[in-house]
Write a structure and sequence with these properties.
Elements lengths: L15 E3 L5 E3 L3 H25 L4 H24 L17 H15 L9 E2 L4 H26 L6 H21 L7 E2 L7
Antiparallel strand pairs: 1-2, 3-4
């Protein structure tokens, strides 16, 4: 259980922050950048939830909001995972880690919604409904978090949970699919027209 009684501590005034292990690192450390981007993605999802809730009476938007709320909990798990370097020979379930069942849940949700979408004939521009636009913003932040996680894994190959990277990859795919659902199952997608303004 987390209990916060004081918001500022002054311990980061020197430009450092504490990892979950207690180790101090610079605030621009690649690990901190990575879980910071996951936090940013979570905030973007929060904006998308507000847009979904504003579409009162839309059952698809309500389903999307419920999915996003569950994912927000996963992203806190993911932040904790990334803030705790994977230890060599770490006993199973001793730390909060993203696990395969969380990634599989995303895949099942993608398959469920994608089944009702028409195939794309062009790339989709971010836009359409407010909810779709919010999902596209969240998708791009998740993609950045994935790039950060891949970079962190390159610097610390044994210190990053590989499932965390898979989760981020599937999440960005899901957000793309849900953006099409939010655009009337692709009916209101804004399609790219190459060279349109030449």
């Amino acid at each position: 259980m987390v209990k916060l009684t004081k918001i500022y501590t002054r311990t980061g005034d020197d430009g450092s922050t504490g990892l979950a292990t207690g180790a101090r690192v610079r605030k621009d450390d690649p690990r901190v950048e990575c879980y910071g981007t996951v936090d940013e993605a979570n905030a973007a999802l929060g904006v998308a939830v507000v847009a979904a809730d504003a579409a009162a009476g839309n059952t698809d938007a309500a389903r999307i909001a419920a999915i996003l709320r569950a994912i927000q909990h996963d992203l806190f798990d993911l932040g904790a995972d990334l803030a705790t370097p994977l230890a060599k020979d770490e006993p199973s379930r001793t730390r909060l880690r993203i696990i395969q069942t969380q990634t599989t849940r995303l895949e099942k949700t993608i398959d469920e919604f994608n089944e009702n979408l028409a195939p794309l004939t062009s790339f989709v521009l971010p836009g359409g409904t407010a909810l779709a636009a919010g999902l596209h913003v969240a998708r791009t932040v998740v993609r950045r978090a994935e790039r950060d996680a891949v970079g962190l894994a390159a610097l610390d190959p044994s210190g990053v949970n590989p499932e965390a990277i898979k989760y981020l990859n599937r999440l960005s795919d899901l957000l793309f699919v849900l953006s099409r659902v939010a655009n009337d199952f692709g009916g209101n997608d804004v399609l790219w027209r190459p060279g349109a303004n030449r």
